[in-house]
Design goal:
The chain starts with 12 loop residues before the first helix and ends with a helix. It is globular and about 70 Å long. The protein folds into 2 domains: 48 residues, no CATH class; 219 residues, MetI-like (MetI-like fold, Orthogonal Bundle). Helix 3 crosses helix 11, helix 7 crosses helix 8 and helix 11 packs antiparallel against helix 13. 66% of the residues lie in helices and 0% in strands. The protein is mainly alpha-helical and 290 residues long.
Length: 290
């Protein structure tokens, strides 16, 4: 028997137009990143200002070594790591404990609590009330001001709640028959079965804390407590900022800036591929169901 030949898809003019547009958009997104990487890897001795670099003329890690040895950068990096790690951990704890409670429809005032969560999807207190709240809690110029006021949000709660509700109820019932209480059911059954949504929300929370900029700008006054994003902003935008001592080292400011930007993005770029596979299951199930 002859194998049936696989029919090749005939591309129409419309298909070619779509592919060209998509390719152009991809280039627009990728080109600035390639440009930043190329400049950051260019040897400071051969760097030429205002030249378009798609590939370094001479590769050197001198700029990266200098930045990693700079006290200001490392201090900002440590502050951001602390805020990201502690903030993400607390976000997950608050989100999933609250979401698990919201799945109990026989709980007193269930509709009231659910209504309060949905209400915050449409209305926000605003900058001034938030600042007054942080000030009343004596968190001004404290790294906790970037963690405690944003422990969770309505969207994450709804995603976690719907994902937990997608877990068969028989599993929880069997755990109770074995003598588990609510806390044991939550820790031994619900959390292990919610790994997909936990991985997804972990990345969302981590990216949010890692990119903390505006709150850090208005709540932190001590430069020793500033986050990495505020440091990058001062290096890239503030004309009065000498940055990391570029003039003293006779190092091109552009290579230092681009290397700093790459280092600020690198941790998220490294973590993302390991959690990306959970996105479809974690987000779609939690967001669509219910």
């Amino acid at each position: 028997m002859f194998k049936k030949r696989r029919k090749l898809k005939h591309f129409t003019i419309g298909d070619y137009v779509v592919y060209i547009i998509i390719s152009f958009i991809c280039i627009l997104f990728i080109a600035p990143f390639i440009y930043a990487v190329s400049i950051s890897l260019t040897d400071p001795d051969v760097y030429v200002p205002f030249k378009l670099y798609l590939f370094p003329d001479k590769i050197s890690l001198a700029t990266y070594k200098y930045i990693l040895s700079n006290a200001s950068f490392m201090n900002s990096f440590k502050n951001t790591v602390f805020i990201t790690f502690v903030g993400t951990l607390l976000d997950l704890c608050v989100t999933y404990t609250f979401a698990y409670v919201l799945t109990k429809k026989n709980m007193p005032f269930h509709k009231l609590f659910m209504g309060m969560v949905v209400f915050t999807l449409m209305f926000n207190a605003g900058i001034i009330p938030n600042f007054m709240m942080v000030k009343s809690l004596h968190l001004i110029n404290s790294r906790w001001a970037l963690i405690l006021p944003v422990l969770t949000n309505a969207w994450s709660l709804i995603v976690a709640k719907n994902f937990i509700e997608s877990i068969p109820g028989e599993i929880e019932e069997s755990a109770r028959i074995d003598g588990c209480n609510d806390i044991q059911v939550f820790l031994r059954m619900i959390i292990p079965l919610s790994k997909a949504s936990i991985a997804t929300l972990t990345l969302f929370f981590a990216v949010s804390h890692w990119n903390t900029y505006f709150n850090a700008l208005i709540y932190l006054t001590d430069t020793n407590k500033r986050t990495l994003q505020v440091y990058v902003k001062s290096l890239l935008i503030d004309a009065s900022t000498t940055g990391v001592g570029v003039d003293v080292m006779n190092m091109p400011s552009e290579t230092v800036r681009m290397a700093t930007v790459i280092l600020a993005m690198l941790p998220i770029l490294v973590v993302y591929p390991f959690l990306q596979k959970y996105f479809v299951k974690g987000t779609m199930v939690g967001a669509v169901k219910g």
